[in-house]
Amino acid sequence: MKKYAFTMAEVLITLGIIGIVEAMTLPSLIQRNNNKVVETV
Fold it and tell me: Closest by alpha carbon to 9, among 24, 17, 1?
């Protein structure tokens, strides 16, 4: 019986891709949140 598991390289590549996507989307979300704060104040 063979156990299936992710290799270290696969995990690091996946985390790297998630990090890149997060780095691209976070600034726009922060800017949108700041705009809402300014409007409500």
Answer: 17
Q: How far apart are CA 23 and CA 30, in angstroms?
A: 11
Q: What is the pTM of this model?
A: 0.61
d(CA 22, CA 6): 22
Tens digits of residue pLDDT in 13-27: 999 999 999 999 988
The DSSP secondary-structure symbol of 2 reads P
Taken in order 17, 18, 21, 27, the sign of the CA dihedral is negative
Alpha-carbon distance 14 to 37, whole Å? 34
Reduced to 3 states (helix: H, G, I; strand: E, B; else coil), residue 18 is helix
